[in-house]
């Protein structure tokens, strides 16, 4: 994906309507207070018995002890807000001395999003599985087809046929992804306002219902479009290899190990992940030297050997680019 950045990130800092201290399934504070203030005789007796017993009191709900309460992460201040990146760096530097050395070696990130959420999601779909230059070319033709960035709207995308999109280099499969996203917006299943204010878990569930949008794309979108501060793309190879280098691990950590390894980065795991991409970028081998202009005449065998070497170098470069794609493809990366 590209650096996800659709909605206007500065306007994405609206607080979620859900209070971070009150689970939506919990009883209201007034109801809970009323129940506590008027105990029944049976409850009073139970309280007396429990004070004499070392056993923990039983809940009136037999399922309460069996089902852990869900913990939702609601949107906080976006990383594009004034002072938020500085606060993140201060926390990460103090929490993880190993990461502090990486922070010192790089300029701080700048998270900004020039596009609305729908626009950013469209852009990420167009960029999928393409080299950066090829994707940028397709995206430019897509904007021309619509008449400019201001026309990247659900109804405008739905008005484009698969053949229209194919003529600018969009495959039929990607065209179906774009149409599915636009239909979900047009029907009200998704909206920019809902996307901005949804908690992380709900947003991931809703976006992965769209064809062509998987967990990695959602994480990139949350970090670089919504600028959410505490997103850990645990399956991203670049972040995992960065963690391996950071802590001197013998092997690349599995996605299931990443939560524990990066726990100390909370609540700024998005910024920690950003530095992992930078770390891997710095470890990448330098590009091969340019081929001199006007080389000496070569035999047919020499030409073939040089071509093989060039192809091998290009393959090596492409493998590196694929690992650091988030740095190139997502529009808000600084």
From TrEMBL:
SMART domains, per this entry? ENDO3c (SM00478)
Q: Where is this region: Disordered?
A: 1-77
What keywords is this UniProt entry annotated with?
Answer: DNA damage, DNA repair
Record-linked InterPro entries: Alkylbase_DNA_Glycosylase/TA (IPR051912), DNA_glycosylase (IPR011257), HhH-GPD_domain (IPR003265)
Q: What ranges does the record list as Low complexity composition bias?
A: 16-50
Which CDD domains does the entry link to?
ENDO3c (cd00056)
Gene Ontology CC terms, in alphabetical order: nucleus; protein-DNA complex
Name listed for the protein in its UniProt record: HhH-GPD domain-containing protein
Where along the chain is composition biased (Polar residues)?
A: 1-14
The highest taxon in the source lineage is: Eukaryota
Q: Which GO terms describe its biological process?
A: base-excision repair, AP site formation; DNA alkylation repair
Cite the GO molecular-function annotations of the record. Answer: alkylated DNA binding; DNA-3-methyladenine glycosylase activity; DNA-7-methylguanine glycosylase activity
In this chain the HhH-GPD domain maps to: 126-281
Q: Which Pfam families match?
A: HhH-GPD
Gene3D superfamilies named among the record's database cross-references:
1.10.1670.40, Hypothetical protein, domain 2
Q: Which family does it belong to?
A: Belongs to the alkylbase DNA glycosidase AlkA family.
């Amino acid at each position: 994906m590209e650096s996800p950045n659709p909605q206007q990130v500065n306007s994405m800092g609206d607080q979620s309507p859900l209070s971070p201290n009150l689970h939506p399934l919990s009883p209201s504070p007034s109801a809970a207070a009323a129940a506590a203030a008027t105990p029944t005789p049976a409850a009073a007796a139970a309280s007396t018995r429990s004070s004499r017993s070392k056993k923990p009191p039983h809940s009136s709900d037999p399922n309460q002890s069996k089902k852990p309460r869900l913990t939702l992460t609601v949107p906080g201040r976006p990383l594009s807000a004034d002072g938020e990146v500085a606060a993140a760096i201060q926390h990460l530097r103090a929490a993880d001395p190993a990461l502090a050395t990486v922070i010192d070696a790089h300029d701080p990130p700048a998270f900004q999003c020039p596009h609305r959420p729908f626009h950013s999601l469209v852009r990420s779909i167009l960029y999928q599985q393409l080299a950066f230059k090829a994707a940028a070319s397709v995206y430019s033709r897509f904007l021309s087809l619509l008449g400019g960035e201001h026309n990247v709207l659900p109804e405008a995308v739905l008005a484009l046929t698969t053949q229209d999109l194919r003529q600018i280099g969009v495959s039929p499969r990607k065209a179906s992804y774009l149409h599915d996203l636009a239909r979900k917006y047009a029907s009200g299943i998704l909206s920019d306002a809902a996307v901005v204010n949804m908690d992380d878990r709900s947003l991931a569930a809703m976006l992965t219902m769209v064809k062509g949008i998987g967990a990695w794309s959602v994480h990139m979108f949350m970090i670089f479009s919504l600028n959410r501060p505490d997103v850990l793309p645990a399956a991203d190879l670049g972040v995992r290899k960065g963690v391996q280098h950071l802590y001197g691990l013998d092997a690349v950590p599995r996605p299931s190990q990443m939560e524990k390894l990066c726990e100390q980065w909370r609540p700024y795991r998005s910024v920690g992940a950003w530095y992992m991409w930078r770390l891997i970028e710095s470890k990448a081998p330098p590009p091969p030297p340019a081929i001199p202009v006007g080389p000496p005449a070569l035999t047919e065998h020499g030409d073939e050997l040089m071509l093989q070497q060039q192809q091998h170098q290009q393959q090596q470069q492409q493998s590196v680019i694929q690992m650091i794609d988030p740095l190139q493809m997502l529009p808000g990366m600084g």
